[in-house]
């Protein structure tokens, strides 16, 4: 049965269903229950933004509040995964990777290779990403490129509630370590979500809009900005943009991107990450190498600037790629439309 | 509450308890220690010939620690090792030939030649890997212990770290986490007096590492790590307690490193004659052999026989490692993920 | 002013969720004489591309819908009228035309689109339209769901109470399929009728659903008033396992597209959204094992396990057989299996999904069949 559900509740539901299905699924994180050892109620928080709220009542001690020790509990989740559990650790904000990155970079990501294929580490690290929450420089970054760079990690960043549930279920069932990035400004967004469990395979981009004139590639929140831009372009300039939501950044669905660019001849990549060594540069470079002959214009990149995320709303709103900036980039790939 | 042991001695002093082990166990302990010693001494020789790639950190001099602890474990108990991990591997039952091949980077190695000396692992034996990152094993072993606790299988986790790694935040965070979750973890501090070329006294703010344990609410025991029996007894008590749900503890083993930090280390930071003194007075193998022969339980002939058997084992391991095939070029890209 | 000689052509409503559609091209120029059932204009929704067939006869006097433009359901996109109706009257008709969109849309949004019923064969989803005395039950095929009747359910609702269900393992019904054989599915159909207190119904089955309906008629003749078998399984041994196996195996858009294209005479009918909807279904837990088991039991290696034609010949209820001439899943030659016993129609320009591709004609045939 399908009904409208928010991104946040879709994640909650995915966790609930997988915990019901598989007793080896456990949840660790700071205040994911809330109230541990306190005089008041348990399940007081369910995570800082309430994503895991209610799960304690259903699954009890399989949810564990942790001390504020990201290295220790992210590492413990990884260690438990290597010993047959399927832990889902919540790293509150992905920005906090700074204090536990070794466990992700040098442990989880490398076990399988380093141990000659004899280990598997089915851990999921859930974390909030993205700007627009007025959370300033240390709680707002889109650090997806940092993780995508690392062999051995899988990186997922859904743009809507339907994908969030299916991709999280796949992440939990997947035998490799997964960094699951949740854009905090999408938590309230709603979509039709089946009540049943379902898994969306990794490396399968979603074409969210058909178009023949330009390919816009994005993921996460900016998919919606890209769609907005596509609608404006269609109305104002008659340019029909194909919009591709990558959904997973590692693995990445190159085939869908290349196939689309071969049809449209034009590419705009939209990435909320900082511009250098980003998903945008990655996609642009790959397309330039693999489909150079199909390109009718230079690929364009729309990204955050090479700055930290500013606090002032006036500045932060300039930081995230806007629909206008995306439309302008598309027009750059259509010089004749610009002239007209 | 801290556990005190009659074997809590200052450096060098031998315990004079009656020998608490059956002859078979004594022979097994000696065989393990002798295997480690020969393995390392042979590596010292072979390394100098230039056939062994990379860093090699030798465990010679420290054998009683790994052996005394590991005799209390089964394959379903997990250990997380260090960069100086050969001894832990051998004592935990990892195949010696495969280890040697791994160190030579051959495809018949424990990790198909893709890990090397610093990353030997065998999860089927509960050996979660040597580790090139100081202190990284502590969070991982918390996870292993958490998995054992979730499953209620009575398993314990042991993490090893040196006097240098003892200053890593991961170790300290993990002691707290293990205390908070009452995990069956033993933190084994292998205090050989040096971290690379830096003395433990220089790099440590406390005079006694047990104070650190107490600071986290953990009991701690310090033993003479050159005395197999002291290690064996203390470890046995702590492990039995952890297995029974009594929680984590710190075990400090004070010991000596016969060689340099790694092969090629000129060791000029050591005192003149320090290595000779240690070889003469603090050789755990000699101390062990003297005691069991003096007690009349094991004969000199039995010791000599075992020495020959081990020498043959190591000979075979080296020659088979040398003649083993190199990994194929396809191995470069295999086993990064379970599926991608 | 209502001139009965002037007939509007409106944006059709194909199925419960359609709110708007895009005119993609006119198949007839202005001035063409149109007969009922002629294909006039191509329309695309986010789910499917289709053709609007003439419901009235007349000369195509106006093609108002601009290709590439999206119109709400029931918006005026063209005008049919007799040749002698003056242009001025037609212009007046166009000017006065009011889109009755809001009422319809609001009403549907308020009521439940789909309902569920618990049966011994699991919880089954269904849609119900119309209030007629006769009862029709529409049974989709392998991998399908009740939306396969998008273009039929409303047309039949004028003459009967029409139910369309999702078989077990399909659509939004429970995914358990018991033994995964024909007996389980036909048992589920009877259980569905029991649960909704339908004593007797006209069964319309497509593809595997035709075999399910046939098996039900053989086991429970008293429950089945008539059979309509469309591109049906159960009438001959051959089947294109390339389709069924491909459908089971495909997990991605790129793999699924060529598989689905085999369903239609015109592969362009397969839209991105149609593929995405099918992938969404296929991702649900339990679907893969249900489909794998059903296809292994019912269509192993290019063969249908159940050929029921001879037994159907022994029954009494009226039978209609409809096929798309270019069916690439089950050959149209199977339509001949009940020659003499059934009314048989093979429609040109249609493939396996003939009830979608030639909905006007299929609906006509079904309405005639119900009268018998
Ligand atoms: C995080 C980290 N920092 C530094 C190093 C480099 N390093 C390798 S071994 C070592 C000294 C370790 O000393 P100790 O923990 O006492 O272990 P020992 O070598 O004495 O066994 C250092 C600094 C490292 N491998 N990892
Ligand atoms: Mg040291």
From TrEMBL, chain A:
The enzyme's E.C. designation: 1.2.4.-
Superkingdom of origin organism: Bacteria
UniProt KW keywords: Oxidoreductase
Pfam families: Transket_pyr (PF02779), Transketolase_C (PF02780)
Domain Transketolase-like pyrimidine-binding: 5-189
InterPro entries: THDP-binding, Transketo_C/PFOR_II, Transketolase-like_Pyr-bd, Transketolase_C
Cross-referenced PANTHER family: ACETOIN:2,6-DICHLOROPHENOLINDOPHENOL OXIDOREDUCTASE SUBUNIT BETA, PYRUVATE DEHYDROGENASE E1 COMPONENT BETA SUBUNIT
Name of the protein: Alpha-ketoacid dehydrogenase subunit beta
Organism: Xanthobacter aminoxidans
Automatic annotation (TrEMBL), chain B:
CDD domains: TPP_E1_PDC_ADC_BCADC (cd02000)
Pfam families linked to this entry: E1_dh (PF00676)
Keywords, comma-separated and alphabetical: Oxidoreductase, Thiamine pyrophosphate
The UniProt record lists the keyword Oxidoreductase: yes
Chemical reaction(s) catalysed: N(6)-[(R)-lipoyl]-L-lysyl-[protein] + pyruvate + H(+) = N(6)-[(R)-S(8)-acetyldihydrolipoyl]-L-lysyl-[protein] + CO2
InterPro entries in the record: DH_E1 (IPR001017), PDH_E1_Alpha_Subunit (IPR050642), THDP-binding (IPR029061)
Residues in Dehydrogenase E1 component domain copies: 32-329
Record flagged with keyword Oxidoreductase: yes
Cofactor needs: thiamine diphosphate
Role: The pyruvate dehydrogenase complex catalyzes the overall conversion of pyruvate to acetyl-CoA and CO(2). It contains multiple copies of three enzymatic components: pyruvate dehydrogenase (E1), dihydrolipoamide acetyltransferase (E2) and lipoamide dehydrogenase (E3).
Protein name, as recorded: Thiamine pyrophosphate-dependent dehydrogenase E1 component subunit alpha
Organism: Xanthobacter aminoxidans
Biological classification of the source: Bacteria, Pseudomonadati, Pseudomonadota, Alphaproteobacteria, Hyphomicrobiales
């Amino acid at each position: 049965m399908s009904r409208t559900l928010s991104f946040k509740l879709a994640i909650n539901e995915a966790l609930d269903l997988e915990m019901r299905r598989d007793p080896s699924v456990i949840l660790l994180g700071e205040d994911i229950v809330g109230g541990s050892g306190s005089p008041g109620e348990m399940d007081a928080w369910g995570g800082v933004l309430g994503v895991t709220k209610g799960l304690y009542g259903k699954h009890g001690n399989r949810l564990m509040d942790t001390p504020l020790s990201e290295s220790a509990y992210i590492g413990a989740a990884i260690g438990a995964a290597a010993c047959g559990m399927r832990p889902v650790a919540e790293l509150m904000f992905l920005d906090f990777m700074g204090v536990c990155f070794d466990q992700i970079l040098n442990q989880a990501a490398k076990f399988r290779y380093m141990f000659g294929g004899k280990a598997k580490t089915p851990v999921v690290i859930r974390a909030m990403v993205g700007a627009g929450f007025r959370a300033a420089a240390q709680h707002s970054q889109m650090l997806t490129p940092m993780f995508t760079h690392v062999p051995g990690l899988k990186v997922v960043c859904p743009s809507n509630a339907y994908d969030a549930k299916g991709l999280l279920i796949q992440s939990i069932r997947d035998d490799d370590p997964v960094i699951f990035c949740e854009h905090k400004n999408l938590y309230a967004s709603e979509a039709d979500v089946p009540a049943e469990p379902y898994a969306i395979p990794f490396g399968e981009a979603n074409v969210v809009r058909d178009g023949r004139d330009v390919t816009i590639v994005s993921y996460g929140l900016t998919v919606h900005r890209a769609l907005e831009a596509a609608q404006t372009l269609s109305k104002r300039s008659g340019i029909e943009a194909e919009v591709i939501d990558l959904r997973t950044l590692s693995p990445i669905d190159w085939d869908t991107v290349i196939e689309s660019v071969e049809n449209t001849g034009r590419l705009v990549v939209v990435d909320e990450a900082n511009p250098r060594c980003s998903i945008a540069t990655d996609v642009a470079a790959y397309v330039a190498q693999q489909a150079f002959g199909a390109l009718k214009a230079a690929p364009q990149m729309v990204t955050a600037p090479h700055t930290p995320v500013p606090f002032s709303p006036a500045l932060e709103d300039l930081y995230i790629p806007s629909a206008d900036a995306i439309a302008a980039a598309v027009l750059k790939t259509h010089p004749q439309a610009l002239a007209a | 509450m801290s556990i005190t042991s009659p074997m809590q001695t200052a450096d060098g002093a031998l315990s004079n308890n009656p020998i608490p082990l059956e002859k078979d166990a004594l022979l097994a302990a000696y065989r393990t220690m002798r295997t480690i010693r020969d393995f390392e001494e042979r590596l010292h020789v072979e390394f100098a010939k230039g056939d062994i790639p990379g860093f090699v950190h030798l465990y010679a001099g420290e054998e009683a620690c790994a052996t005394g602890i590991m005799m209390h474990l089964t394959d379903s108990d997990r250990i997380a090792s260090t960069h100086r991990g050969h001894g832990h591997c051998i004592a935990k039952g990892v195949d010696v030939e495969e280890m040697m091949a791994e160190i030579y980077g051959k495809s018949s190695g424990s990790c198909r030649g893709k890990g090397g000396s610093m990353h030997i692992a065998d999860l089927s034996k509960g050996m979660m890997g040597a580790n090139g990152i100081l202190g990284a094993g502590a969070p991982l072993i918390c996870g292993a212990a958490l998995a054992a606790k979730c499953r209620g299988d009575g398993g314990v986790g042991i993490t090893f770290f040196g006097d240098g790694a003892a200053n890593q935040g991961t170790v300290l965070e993990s002691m707290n986490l293990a205390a908070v979750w009452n995990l069956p973890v033993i933190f084994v501090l292998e205090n050989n007096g040096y971290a690379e070329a830096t003395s433990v006294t220089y790099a440590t703010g406390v005079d006694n590492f047990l104070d650190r344990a107490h600071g986290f609410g953990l009991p701690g025991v310090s033993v003479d790590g050159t005395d197999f029996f002291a290690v064996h007894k203390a470890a046995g008590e702590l492990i039995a307690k952890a297995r029974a749900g009594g929680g984590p503890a710190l075990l400090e083993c004070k010991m000596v490193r016969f060689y340099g930090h790694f092969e090629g280390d000129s060791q000029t930071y050591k005192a003149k004659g320090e290595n000779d003194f240690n070889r003469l007075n603090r050789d755990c193998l000699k101390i062990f052999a003297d005691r069991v022969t003096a007690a009349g339980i094991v004969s000199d002939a039995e010791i000599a026989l075992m020495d020959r058997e081990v020498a043959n084992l190591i000979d075979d391991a080296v020659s088979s490692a040398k003649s083993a095939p190199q990994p194929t070029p396809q191995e470069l890209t295999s086993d990064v993920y379970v599926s991608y | 002013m209502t001139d009965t000689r002037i007939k509007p052509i409106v944006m059709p409503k194909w199925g419960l969720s359609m709110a708007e559609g895009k005119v993609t091209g006119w198949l007839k120029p202005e001035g063409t004489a149109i007969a009922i059932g002629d294909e006039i204009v191509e329309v695309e929704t986010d789910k499917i591309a289709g053709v609007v067939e003439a419901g009235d006869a007349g000369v195509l006097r106006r093609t108002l819908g601009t290709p590439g433009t999206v119109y709400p359901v029931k918006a005026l996109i063209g005008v049919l009228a007799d040749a002698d109706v003056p242009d001025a009257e037609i212009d007046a008709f166009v000017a006065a035309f009011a889109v009755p969109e809001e009422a319809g849309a609001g009403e549907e949004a308020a009521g439940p689109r789909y309902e569920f019923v618990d049966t011994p064969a699991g919880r089954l989803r269904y849609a119900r339209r119309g209030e007629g005395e006769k009862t029709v039950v529409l049974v989709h095929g392998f991998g399908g769901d009740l939306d396969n009747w998008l273009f039929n359910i409303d047309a039949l609702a004028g003459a009967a109470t029409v139910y369309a269900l999702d078989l077990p393992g399909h659509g939004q019904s429970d995914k358990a399929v018991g033994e995964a054989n024909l007996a389980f599915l036909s048992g589920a159909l009877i259980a569905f009728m029991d649960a909704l207190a339908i004593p007797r119904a006209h069964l319309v089955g497509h593809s595997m659903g035709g075999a399910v309906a046939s098996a039900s008629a053989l086991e429970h003749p008293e429950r089945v008033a008539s059979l309509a078998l469309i591109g049906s399984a159960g009438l001959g041994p051959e089947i294109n396992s390339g389709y069924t196996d491909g459908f089971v195996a495909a997990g991605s858009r790129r793999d699924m597209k060529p598989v689905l294209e085999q369903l239609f005479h015109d592969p362009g009918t397969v839209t991105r959204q149609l593929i995405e909807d099918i992938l969404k279904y296929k991702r649900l837990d339990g679907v893969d094992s249900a489909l794998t088991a059903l296809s292994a039991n019912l269509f192993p290696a290019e063969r249908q396990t159940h050929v029921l034609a001879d037994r159907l010949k022994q029954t009494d209820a009226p039978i209609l057989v409809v096929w798309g001439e270019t069916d690439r899943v089950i050959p149209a030659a199977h339509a001949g299996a009940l020659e003499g016993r059934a009314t048989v129609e093979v429609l040109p320009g249609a493939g396996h999904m003939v009830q979608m591709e030639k909905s006007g004609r299929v609906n006509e045939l079904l309405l005639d069949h119900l009268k018998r």
